[in-house]
Amino acid sequence: MKAVILVGGEGTRLRPLTYDLPKPMVPICGKPFMEYQLHLMKEHGINEVIFSLGYKWKVFEDHFADGADIGMKLHYVVEDSPLGTAGAIKNVEDYLDEDTFCVFNGDILSDFNLQEIFKIHARMNAKCTIALTPVEDPTLYGLVELDGQGKILRFTEKPKREDVRSNLINAGFYVLDRSILNKMIRGKNYSIEREIFPEALKRGEMLVGYSHSGYWLDIGSPLKYITANYDVLQSRLKSPASPTAQRHVAPDAIIGENVSITEPVWIGNGVKIEDGSRIIGPTVIGDYCTVGESSLIERSVLWPGSSIGNNCSLEEVIVGRYCSIGDKTALGGLSVIGSYNVIVSTKSPEE
Ligand code: GDD
Ligand code: MG
User: Fold this and answer.
1) What distance in angstroms lies between residue 170's CA and the mean position of ligand 1's atoms?
2) Ligand 1 pocket mutation, candidates 76, 104, 105, criterion most atoms within 8 A of CB
3) Which of 24, 39, 313, 349 could be bridged to 330 by S-S, CB 3.0 to 4.6 A?
4) What's the rounded Cα separation, in Å, for the pair 47 and 345?
5) How many CB atoms lie within 10 A of CB 248?
6) Is the bond preceding 16 in cis, omega lying within 30 degrees of 0?
7) What pLDDT, in 10s, does the model give residues 77-120?
């Protein structure tokens, strides 16, 4: 089975973090998010993947190249301008030479049982099988209504509150019969969720829902992105890409005197933490970050190369790459500092 990964979106809700990095490449405990998805596919026997790309596509190719390092065959297909989720699938048609293929949204952290979904797709003789997950607020997603046998009755993308009749949503993974490509138009910008699925249902085609009961998160907002890091640190997601221990401190990290570290933490290569600082998990400190004296870093995620001054307090903060946070800076409340920023506290040295 081959997989298509849709990774052409601009990740607007994760700005400013996605100004210089596409959403699927943001780091989770030191590894690009995409590595978690690729490992899941590999575990379930998918060895060939087609990236359907647009925004900042080169970042993917520069990192994963032909896929040999992770034992997969990877292809890169770039859109001249965004084609939407349906146009983006049609655009990679030339690589899809088998009767069935699967599609991932590029921002889903999950432990889907792909083999199980493939079996159900075949058993139900479905045109399309969609993985589903329950959420509290379906208005942000694609709402799916099922009959008692798992057949999809209705698909409503971003439904109005008054139309919500189920808590099951499209979890961003599909198995598709190749014939679905015949209904798609090359070069047209449109949506599989808003057009292809509702139209297939109108024609009476067999679309099936698979209710996933394991871990699932769409990393599309700062809260969800930081939650993904917490969950991976706390071993809520079983993945070969996850850290192997609740306390990961790289061997070459330099930890000063009287530094207290409360797990779970992931502290990367070349990190330096100076005397008297406190690191309270779940926290990620990316490669080559520095933390000055007597600072507190709690429930935060620091991307590589950032420096935090003395006597700072960062609680529930995401700091991008190569930022410089001056002495005595206090940040909290899910603040997001975009990469390459300098933050200076106006407190006087005596305060
Ligand atoms: N190649 C390409 N081209 N990819 C695209 C394009 C495009 O024009 N537009 C979006 N994508 C990719 C995004 O990069 C992302 O991986 C995926 O398609 C879905 O887009 P999002 O922007 O993340 O959509 P969403 O989160 O609002 O909703 C989607 O995901 C939900 C689950 O998280 C829908 O599929 C919903 O139905 C679903 O419930
Ligand atoms: Mg999304």
Assistant:
1) 11
2) 105
3) 313
4) 50
5) 18
6) yes
7) 999 999 999 999 999 999 999 999 999 999 999 999 999 999 99
